[in-house]
Amino acid sequence: MVDAKIVFLDEVGAGVNRTLLGTISDAILRLNQERNYTFVVIEHDMDFIGKLCDPVICMAEGKVLAEGTLAEIKANERVIEAYLGTGLKNKAVAQ
User: What global pTM score does this model have?
Assistant: First the structure.
């Protein structure tokens, strides 16, 4: 990764234990801050994303579904429906 400007990472957290994932996220943040690398991270682990990304862009079927802070993404009805389904969303509202 010599003189990288943009680094694409796909599913970095897949199969990785929490301790190692913390080390990876620290390294990503350090490279961003010290060397001004830009990272594009494709990931389902929202805790990992929340530590690294601002803004968060959520995609579904190849299109941008929502963009904002992690809290905004988690509360976005389109995101909830796309990833959890309306049945789960309606059940949570009913409780």
Answer: 0.75
